Every structure is written in C-alpha cells, then in structure tokens.
Amino acid sequence: MAAQIIDGKALAQQLRIDIAKDVSEFNERTGIRPGLAAVLVGGDPASAIYVRNKKIACEKAGLYPEEYKLPEATTQGELLTLIHKLNADPKIHGILVQLPLPKHIDSKPILEAVSQHKDADGFHPYNVGRLVEGEPVFTPCTPKGVIHMIESTGQSITGKRAVVIGRSNIVGKPVALLLMHRHATVTVCHSRTQDLPAVCREADIVVAAIGRTQFVTSEMIKEGAIVIDVGINRREDGSLAGDVDFEPVKEKAGWITPVPGGVGPMTIAMLLQNTVESAKRFAKQ
Ligand code: GUN
Questions:
Q1: Would you state the pLDDT for residue 102?
Q2: What's the rounded Cα separation, in Å, for the pair 285 and 276?
Q3: Taking the CB of the first residue and of the last residue of the chain, which one, N or C, has fewer CB atoms within 10 A?
Q4: Which residue(s) pair with 227 in the sheet?
Q5: What is the pTM of this model?
Q6: φ and ψ at 174, to 5 degrees?
Q7: Candidates 22, 119, 121, 243; catalytic one
Q8: Residues 106-145: pLDDT tens digits?
Q9: Closest among 90, 99, 77 to 117, alpha carbons compared
C-alpha cells in the first residue's frame, strides 16, 4: 500500500496559526513583540529566498522582523560589529546568520558571537552542549521540524530503529540526538558507511540529509518505514528534488515527506517558535 504523505506545508500552516495566536496573547499581556533579526551576507540566490521567506513568515505571525542584507565584500569585523549591536538590542530576541557565509568569512567565530540567549538557530556551542545533555534551550530548527513530522504520524519513537543519513552539525548530528533523547536506537550513516543499504533496511525511521538527489532508493527501505527527506537539491532543469527517490519509495514506506512541501516549511515555523520562546524567557527576567 502506498505511504501516507506527511504534509509539511499543512503542518507548518497549523503551527503558524498557533504561533500567531500565542504572539498576540503575549503581546497583549506584556506589550512585547518577539523580534527576529535575519542576516544575509552576499548574493547567493537560494539564501536570499530563504531569508525573505523567514521575514514574510515573521510578519504574518505578528513577530517583529529585521532583515540585514550585507554585501559580499563585508569583512569579518563588520559582521561581528552588527552581531554585537543585535545582541544588545532589546527589540531583538532571535538572531540568525544565514549559512553558508562567503568563503572569506570564518563562520565559527561568527556563530559563537551570537548571544547564546538569542541563538534562534541553536548553533552556538553553549546551545549545542545543552542539546547533547538533553536539556535544550534553542533546538536547531530543521531537526525540531523533523521530529514534529515524525510525531505527527502518531507512531511512537521509543524503541524504534532510526537511521540518519548525513552527519552535519545543522541536521544529521542534532536529529540523531533528538531521536536518541526520545529513546530510539540511532545509527548515523555517511559517505564512508559500508553497506549503507543494509543498514537502512533495518530502520523503522529513515532521515535523509545528505544533499544527493534520489540517493535513497526503495531497496534501502523497510516496508512501512517512516521516511523523512531533508534534502533540497536542484536538478539540471531547475526543479527541486529531495534525497529520496520519492515515487518508488512511496510504494514501500508507511509515511513519507515530499520535496518541496515537506521539511522546508517546518524549518521556518520552528524558527518562529524559537524566537517566541526566547522573547518569553526575556520577559521573565
Ligand atoms: N542554511 C541552511 N540551513 C540553515 C539554517 O537552518 N539556518 C541558517 N542560519 N542557515 C542555514
């Protein structure tokens, strides 16, 4: 039987309605509008679209957005100066620096300069450490969205075998931690994993985050598995494709996310949620 589609667009839409209501109540109570600053350096077209979509989503949910579009030639020092200014700005509760940054900028000190209390992406080493300990403050947005999608199936994660393909700091590693904290038995695979198809076939939950078009084929999927596709790859004709070979895998999996309209919209909803939670923490201080 064909898999049920996990509709990220619809899930994110519902989340954004809930967030907008929450923001409105919080604003009535405190007079505060949760503020998110998005910083883009250089002219990467995909990054520009992501940042614009984040700004539009903020406005629609009643958050206060600030968008900074800095030229490609921006120096490390200039970017740090902006981050320090945003760290000190009481209107701003979440800061995100869109990645990747231009090659001449070292992203590590930049991510470390973002206040750990405004780190809406959850990339600061303090927040990474809190996540490892199972006591997250800011959970990275895409991994948080992935978990929400798995939970939306109504299937319990506890005791399940999960395979995460990809070990990036942004997706693979945090997804593996979040699954582990929910009592899954987690295997993290990558480009050097031996007999990756055999490892994947064991999985009740597969999260694909490797950035290779149609890498996950139906031979790698156990009947009835939950398949979450984090990949956003551009085909030669300009269309978008995930890491999963969608049509054949759909015939075998129990649940599957599409690309586009899967994980992508969830990431933005989680960013809004992180910013609202941050504003609430500031309000309590
Ligand atoms: N680039 C790709 N994904 C992300 C993300 O989640 N946050 C930021 N800041 N940049 C990204």
A1: 97
A2: 15
A3: C
A4: 206, 256
A5: 0.97
A6: -65, -35
A7: 121
A8: 999 999 999 999 999 999 999 999 999 999 999 999 999 9
A9: 90
